[in-house]
From TrEMBL:
<dbReference type="Pfam" id="PF00551">
    <property type="entry name" value="Formyl_trans_N"/>
</dbReference>
<comment type="similarity">
    <text>Belongs to the GART family.</text>
</comment>
<feature type="binding site">
    <location>
        <begin position="13"/>
        <end position="15"/>
    </location>
    <ligand>
        <name>N(1)-(5-phospho-beta-D-ribosyl)glycinamide</name>
    </ligand>
</feature>
<feature type="site" description="Raises pKa of active site His">
    <location>
        <position position="147"/>
    </location>
</feature>
<dbReference type="GO" id="GO:0006189">
    <property type="term" value="P:'de novo' IMP biosynthetic process"/>
</dbReference>
<dbReference type="InterPro" id="IPR036477">
    <property type="entry name" value="Formyl_transf_N_sf"/>
</dbReference>
<keyword id="KW-0808">Transferase</keyword>
<dbReference type="InterPro" id="IPR002376">
    <property type="entry name" value="Formyl_transf_N"/>
</dbReference>
<feature type="domain" description="Formyl transferase N-terminal">
    <location>
        <begin position="3"/>
        <end position="183"/>
    </location>
</feature>
<feature type="active site" description="Proton donor">
    <location>
        <position position="111"/>
    </location>
</feature>
<feature type="binding site">
    <location>
        <position position="68"/>
    </location>
    <ligand>
        <name>(6R)-10-formyltetrahydrofolate</name>
    </ligand>
</feature>
<comment type="pathway">
    <text>Purine metabolism; IMP biosynthesis via de novo pathway; N(2)-formyl-N(1)-(5-phospho-D-ribosyl)glycinamide from N(1)-(5-phospho-D-ribosyl)glycinamide (10-formyl THF route): step 1/1.</text>
</comment>
<feature type="binding site">
    <location>
        <begin position="92"/>
        <end position="95"/>
    </location>
    <ligand>
        <name>(6R)-10-formyltetrahydrofolate</name>
    </ligand>
</feature>
<keyword id="KW-0658">Purine biosynthesis</keyword>
<comment type="function">
    <text>Catalyzes the transfer of a formyl group from 10-formyltetrahydrofolate to 5-phospho-ribosyl-glycinamide (GAR), producing 5-phospho-ribosyl-N-formylglycinamide (FGAR) and tetrahydrofolate.</text>
</comment>
<dbReference type="GO" id="GO:0005737">
    <property type="term" value="C:cytoplasm"/>
</dbReference>
<dbReference type="GO" id="GO:0004644">
    <property type="term" value="F:phosphoribosylglycinamide formyltransferase activity"/>
</dbReference>
Length: 202
């Protein structure tokens, strides 16, 4: 059976591109829809090149918030598409509680640190400035908090030799691309359950 995945982006869209490319490579039966809050997002062009449908949420001002009109528009887009999964991939808006409630355990995010360390903005800079030797990435369900939802999977990255934030970001990004695809596949095509904060695959 064909699955449906909505990917929400705001910028570069490298995670989105890798999710779609790897799915094509493995001939996975997935229909993608790319949704952006930013009409200038570099990722939109990448999605179009891959012949994936894109939609821009129009009713939004600059910033982190999702205004009422934007929220309604997003809800309508999601209702029309009816996704099995909603993957946040560098989406720079706070998802409104209404949307989270409606799609709980369907909205997933990738964060560039080993949560619960370095939540929020500029996680790679936080890790570099703190001087940790190992960081990584985390894929988690979205809940009402910031980067607090149940953790689905994580990967470690050795950053002990990195000399700049950019180097840290690149090392982590490479792992993000692998991890996000693995997790998407498992969530779509295998059985899983969530008990309290624990996510089990079986
Ligand atoms: C990634 O580092 C991701 O972990 C974070 O935002 C960045 C998005 O990069 N949430 P891209 O747009 O996928 O290239």
């Amino acid at each position: 059976m064909e699955k449906k995945v909505a990917i929400l982006i705001s910028g570069r869209g490298s995670n989105m591109e890798s999710l779609i490319n790897l799915s094509f490579k493995e001939n996975l039966k997935i229909e993608f829809l790319v949704v952006s809050d930013n009409p200038e997002a570099e990722g939109l062009k990448k999605a179009e090149k891959l012949n994936v449908k894109t939609i821009v949420i129009k009713n939004l001002k600059k910033g982190w918030k999702m205004e009422r009109e934007g929220e309604e528009e997003l809800l309508k887009i999601l209702k029309d598409f009816s996704p099995d999964l909603i993957l946040l991939a560098g989406f720079m808006r706070i998802i409104p509680p209404n949307v989270i409630e409606k799609y709980y355990l369907k909205i997933v995010n990738i964060h560039p640190s080993l949560l619960p360390s370095f939540k929020g903005k500029d996680a790679q800079k936080q890790a570099f400035d703190y001087g940790v030797k190992v960081s990584g990435c985390t894929v988690h369900f979205i809940d009402m908090g910031v980067d607090t939802g149940p953790i689905i999977d994580q990967r470690c990255v050795d950053i002990s030799k990195a000399k700049s934030v950019e180097e840290v970001s690149n090392l982590i990004l490479e792992k993000e691309h692998q991890l996000y695809f693995e997790v998407m596949k498992k969530l779509l095509f295998s059985k899983w359950k969530v008990e309290n904060r624990n996510v089990y695959f079986y």
